[in-house]
């Protein structure tokens, strides 16, 4: 993903090269000055909000989306910001006097005139879709550049966070002399979808020391983070053993641990693998959202779920309300 400011610089260089070959420039033309870093930001996508906070610019937010997870904002960020709906009108946004608005293309499609109206009013609009695991570093660097913070510091922050998760998993595994657990993730209870290989959730499970029991799942469509699985396939996959059953809880899946335990096929699964797999709920914002805050918190949770002591089963199944998991050995 190319950063808008990098594109501007490339265009400027091209113009300089062209001018060197004698192409006439408009008399009195001046290079377009770079805009100052935004000080009043509206974020209409939770992933952008999380990363703006993580990069130290949370104090510049003047409004966020209704889909935010304030539990991730554990750095003293105010939680009383206005919450805007997906189909927010341009008038409501402009009333907040922002100088920059961040959104994703889905929100833009839901509000076909929003972007044009805001830009006509002189507001900077950044339409950036959620990046892949591999593209997250460049996304953070681009976001840091827009915010006027250090791109290199953002890259280092990501590297340190991922390294801390991997190190915590390695230490927990070594300390308990446990092999990597086989994990199944329920992304949606309807038709029992799981995470597609290569998706953010699949990569995070791997980073935290787990083995995806549905590693050969086929995405619903190209680029989708979801993959159909079904009851029969999970029962078959259990032939190789199943240690952890993760329930991704969020807008797409409201299933509780009690509801999962009550499913007739889950009882059959427990009998098939000799003992019931450990059950745990992980918020969607900590498992599938491209977010530095979600990555750090999700990593803590997964390491604890995968390698926590057996007498901490209740804590694994019901994470502390503040999301801080003790004894994981992970400090972001």
Features:
alpha/beta; five-stranded parallel sheet; four-stranded parallel sheet; 332 residues; globular; 2 domains; Rossmann fold; disordered C terminus
Description:
The chain is α/β, with parallel strands linked by helices. The chain has two domains: 118 residues, 3-Layer(aba) Sandwich (Rossmann fold); 138 residues, 3-Layer(aba) Sandwich (Rossmann fold). Helix content is 41%, strand content 13%. It is built from 14 helices and eleven strands. The strands form three sheets. It has a five-stranded parallel β-sheet with strand order 3-2-1-4-5, sandwiched between helices. Helix 2 links the parallel strand 1 and strand 2. Helix 6 crosses helix 7. It starts with a helix and ends in a 15-residue tail after the last helix.
SSE map:
Layout: H1 4-20, E1 41-43, H2 46-54, E2 61-65, E3 83-84, H3 90-94, E4 100-103, H4 105-110, H5 114-120, E5 124-127, H6 136-147, H7 151-176, E6 182-186, E7 193-195, H8 200-207, E8 211-212, E9 226-228, H9 231-237, E10 244-249, H10 257-261, H11 264-272, E11 278-283, H12 284-287, H13 292-307, H14 313-317
Parallel strand pairs: 1-2, 1-4, 2-3, 4-5, 6-8, 6-10, 10-11
Antiparallel strand pairs: 7-9
Helix pairs in contact: 6-7, 7-13
């Amino acid at each position: 993903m190319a950063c808008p400011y990098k594109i501007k610089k490339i265009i400027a260089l091209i113009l300089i090269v062209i001018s060197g070959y004698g192409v006439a420039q408009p008399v009195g033309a001046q290079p377009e000055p770079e805009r100052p870093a935004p000080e009043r930001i509206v974020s209409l996508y939770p992933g952008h909000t999380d990363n703006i906070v993580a990069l130290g610019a949370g104090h510049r937010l003047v409004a966020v989306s209704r889909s935010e997870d304030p539990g991730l904002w554990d750095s003293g960020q105010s939680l009383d910001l206005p919450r805007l709906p997906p189909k927010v009108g341009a008038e409501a946004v402009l009333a907040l006097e922002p100088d920059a608005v961040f959104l994703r293309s889905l929100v833009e499609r839901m509000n076909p005139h929003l972007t044009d109206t805001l830009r006509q009013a002189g507001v900077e609009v950044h339409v950036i879709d959620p990046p892949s695991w591999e593209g997250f570093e460049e996304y953070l660097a681009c976001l840091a550049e827009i915010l006027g913070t250090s791109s290199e510091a953002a890259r280092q922050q990501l590297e340190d966070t991922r390294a801390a998760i991997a190190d915590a998993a390695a230490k927990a595994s070594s300390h308990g002399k446990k092999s990597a657990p086989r994990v199944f993730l329920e992304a949606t209870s309807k038709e029992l979808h799981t995470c597609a290989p290569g998706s953010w959730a699949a990569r995070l499970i791997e980073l935290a020391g787990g083995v995806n029991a549905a590693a050969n799942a086929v995405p619903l469509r190209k680029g989708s983070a979801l993959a159909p699985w079904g009851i029969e396939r999970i029962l078959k996959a259990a032939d190789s053993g199943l240690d952890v059953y993760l329930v991704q809880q969020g807008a797409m899946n409201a299933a509780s641990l009690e509801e999962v335990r009550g499913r007739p096929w889950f009882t059959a699964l427990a009998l098939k693998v000799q003992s019931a797999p450990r059950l745990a709920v992980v918020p969607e914002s900590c498992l599938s959202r491209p977010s530095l805050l979600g990555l750090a918190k999700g990593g803590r949770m997964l390491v604890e779920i995968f390698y926590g002591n057996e007498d901490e089963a209740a804590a694994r199944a019901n994470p502390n309300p503040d999301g801080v998991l003790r004894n994981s050995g992970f400090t972001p």
